[in-house]
Amino acid sequence: MAEHGGDANSTGNARxxxxxxxxxxAISEQPETTGDPEYRRREFAVLLGEFRRTAVLVPVxxxxxxxVADFGGIxxxxxxxNEQSLARFxxxxxxxxxxxxxxxxxxxxxxxxxxxxxxVPCGVALDCADGEDGMVFPPVRGIVPDAVAVNVDGGTGDxx
Length: 160
Hints:
Number of strands: 6
Strand content: 15-25%
Largest sheet: 4 strands, mixed
Distance between the termini: 55 Å
Order of helices and strands: HHEEEHEHEE
Structural class: alpha+beta
């Protein structure tokens, strides 16, 4: 069945849903430049929300602990959006021939439960072998719980 209520092969005049009017309006109100900080914040918030709702692949060691790396004073948990991204990572490390064990976890579980359990400043590196298509979720307010965010004063909850 098609959106217009007829079967998929129907070629009659389809009535356009009112939702399309809202989409047209929303698109035309977006700033023309991606350099606008407010636009970039909203864009990141959308990506963060999508990550939180999505199951990602987390490579694990023989003890089922997530594979991590320390960089810049922060521990990063590796996560991948699909097996192809994980394979590119394995190849980039020169470890493409070995079997990679992984678990599927919701992004929200990583940020809300695993990151606080690590005990040191920790974030998530998503698809880190994919260059510009990769993404990092650092341990800051709004991404991880305030109790483990590095830009929050633990005693008062104020930003540093």
